[in-house]
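Help wanted!
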Amino acid sequence: MTSSVSSRRDARRNHERLLREARQLFAERGIDAPLDELAARAGVGAGTVYRHFPNRDALVREIYDSAVAELHDFAPEILGAETGWRSVELYVERLGAWVADSPYLPAVMRRVAELDPTHRPGADFEPLVDGLVARAQAEGALRADVTAVDLGILVDMLGSLGQYGGEYLPFWRRQLTIVLDGLRARPGTTPMPVPGQAFAAFHDMSHAKGPRPAPR
Amino acid sequence: MTSSVSSRRDARRNHERLLREARQLFAERGIDAPLDELAARAGVGAGTVYRHFPNRDALVREIYDSAVAELHDFAPEILGAETGWRSVELYVERLGAWVADSPYLPAVMRRVAELDPTHRPGADFEPLVDGLVARAQAEGALRADVTAVDLGILVDMLGSLGQYGGEYLPFWRRQLTIVLDGLRARPGTTPMPVPGQAFAAFHDMSHAKGPRPAPR
DNA sequence: TATGATTCGGAGGGTCGCCTCCGTTTACCC
DNA sequence: GGGTAAACGGAGGCGACCCTCCGAATCATA
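Answered by r_m:
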């Protein structure tokens, strides 16, 4: 699991540089962009790419790992908020903005899920998010029929707006506003048409065996 | 522009079959899936594929055209609703469900936009949607700071949930509920953080020259 | 059914991207 | 500086995919 780090400075530098350029390349040209072009962009020979990452999947996995590490950094602020509702706001806003600003993320996530469908990305976070939802609902601020899975999906939806490019990011907060208003407990809230799902059920459903889904 | 239709029944049958299989193939394997495989799935030789569609882009365009035709079918119901608010509901729900249920659509739309960035997909619809928004706002049902562009983006967001596969579709209405509640005019609505965009501005922004965005 | 025009099938040439291999270069350590 | 181990570069083999080509098969028409 732990990647062995070379003791040579040039090797470390190339490794980092390749990761950085790969994120950008994947964002621009898709997760199946030619690795020879990655080599060119990183100013490196093709051999160097394959020494650091035996194949495309290894590269994708490492990008994924670095994203998960970033994800951990959000936890303190989100979970440490004054109120449960503020936690919900921060959860949706911070994570949504992060995904929207990291256009390579959705494809990387999807590919990792295909490589290992049993892997549950943030399983250790799930109880925390459940707790966060319960707290906000206990306050009477978050509508009672919303689940933690709903929140995660809303983050995905907001993150998908990264497709419009960086110039859209300022406007992104408009959709955020609408979604957060829709999450608020209020008189006259529309009842949910179907019951929600638990994390496990949602995971099993969306990772059901089946052909690779459409890139978006 | 009008595609000439062959007088031979086998040719027409193969053309339709190729379109049908292409939609499914693109949904499963992405818009760059091998056309040789399309030929295999359609039970047809490679030559037949290329006689009907000179290249991948022609195929994509024709799928796009058929989608636009479908789109037109929604107009009467959406615009003919009793109230402006009901129009908004139908707009978001019908189109969102359509996109979510057509996993090939987002990639096809994006590719056509790349092929011809000046092309504005539903330019003739834009005034209608603007009118629909104005009507719902005049009723006091739709929040006053929402624009027609916002509505279109929300449809996109809801449509992106097609990525979870067909089994998710029933649950999809939960997110729809949240979004619609967020659109409702109410006391205590959170003010928008930035002003909205007109269709033209949004189009120019999201189609700014630049490298191909990440497939999702 | 016979005829001619149209479409079909699939082998194969050309291109592009993946990945390996090995002579050369670079970094670390003394 | 000198020696050694590690990393680098990029040419090239290989396979996958795109697309063409033409003899064979099929369809419309009479």
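OP: Thanks! One thing I noticed: The two ends of chain B are 30 Å apart (CA to CA).
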